[in-house]
Amino acid sequence: MSELWRRFGRLGGGLVLATALLWALLLIVLPQLLMVELSFRPNLPAAARGGPEDVLSLANYAALWANPLHRAIFWQTIWSSLLVTLLALLVCYPVAFHLAQEARGTRALLLATALVIPFWVNEILRTFSWFLILARNGLVNRLLLGLGVIEEPLALGGVGAVMIGMVYAYVLFMIFPLYNALESLDRNQIEAARDLGASTWRIHWRVVIPHAKPGIAVGCVMTFMLAAGTFAVPQIMQSLPGGTNARWFTQIIYSYFFDGGDWNRGSAYAFALLLLCIVFVMATMRLFRVGLRDIAK
Predict the structure, then answer these.
(1) The domain 60-296 belongs to what CATH superfamily?
(2) What is the pTM of this model?
(3) Cβ neighbours of residue 2 under 8 Å, at least 6 residues apart?
């Protein structure tokens, strides 16, 4: 706060803070409150709203747990999002460490540019690139057919294809928090551990990873939230052969809002997903033993 006053002055800082608070109130807080209020009300015709049937209840939430298909898709979405987060961490950690601690000069610049340039393209187009790679006549099947590994194209759709698309779609949201955390690590600590005979694995486990905990927590939170709340990636990737079982929970929410016109049930489903995401954020912070101040740094 003091930095804000010092940079913009008391009046300017107050205006900046008021603008940010107004923005959050209008675009985040009020829509969420409206969604919560809708989630507790039944879906009624306009003429019946405000009447004796328009009462608050948990019927929309109970409908989720009473529907075995929706409940299964809900938990599958959560589990798949956790797996996407883990895969993204495993893929991005070595890249972020190399970029922060080992790459220098032109090599670091080229690596950072190579990571960023694909994300100048729209997410939908990047997802379609994986659709073309995994399609029945795509690159993977053509390569396997050409090598004689298979005799007919494989159906490469399903949850696995969705997760591959998501890891690629949200990889930067894991790499950059890791990079920011690892860049501040003193290289001398790594050299001292190596001089004392520590193996590479032990150096990372005892020195690097503890230092990178805030970055790991931020990357996991951002990747999980994006994966759990995405719509475009599963919508595209489930069109692959074998992808009929890859339905995402957000697709059900979308269907209630825009296909069925049941905003009340859709709000309940969306808020249930939001609550699980909040639980994940709190569990991640507890697991890595970081607070909001650590993450903000």
Answers:
(1) MetI-like (1.10.3720.10)
(2) 0.86
(3) none
